[in-house]
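[agent] plan:
  1. take the single chain provided in the ticket
  2. run structure prediction with default settings
  3. attach structure tokens to the ticket
  4. add a short note for the reviewer (M.T.)
[agent] executing step 1
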Amino acid sequence: MWNGTEDKIKVKITWIRHGMTQANGEHRYLGKTDEPLSETGIHLLQEKKKEYFSSPPEFLYTSPMKRCVQTAELLFERNPILIPEWKEMDFGQFEGKNYEELKDDPCYQKWIDSNGTLPFPGGESREQFIRRSMEGFDRMMSDILKRSEKNTGIQNDTDPRYLNSDRGTEIPVVTIVHGGTIMAVLSSLTGVEYFDFQVKNGEGYETVLEWIQGRWKITSLTKIGCEDSKSEHLQ
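[agent] step 2 finished; step 3 output follows
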């Protein structure tokens, strides 16, 4: 439950998809397999760090999977706070396979024809994954507010020190997550189509969130980490 403090702040969250792994490079479904970054993925992240990710956040959150934790440590040289609900989707029977290996599978064709809305055979449905991802989002937002209150020593939103704090009212946060997690959370918060938020490894979105009419709402969204970055202001 929110305590009234959140309507006095904005939270600037940068969502970054983890660096490339071997399976990513081979266009395989990579979900519950806890695969580390590939050498290529590490090199590409080092390049992106110079160009896009030089500013350290106040708070750093990640999925608990190796590829996300490694990305966070490489980009920001610190230990992240883990969000267990942000593990990647369970792809079931499709795990570890790519299109060439699946194209003649009738189950895969049914999944394609459903625009990805059918559950993965032996895995998760999109609805289950989105619900889990949003539980992780709520966990993070509660943690941000608790840590912010602890750091300032301010116990309620009527304290004038809160409104006049030198740290400002916009809290900088970075999350290192999976491509699916970005699609799940941002589509839920904006009402935009799930697949519209697809990004490549090392890319993501910069968002500003405000508490409006009883919920967190994205008011600004910018694609980052790529040449075609663009900004949108959402109402």
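[agent] step 4 note for reviewer: Helices lie at 22-25, 39-51, 66-76, 99-102, 106-113, 126-152, 160-163, 179-190.
[agent] ticket updated
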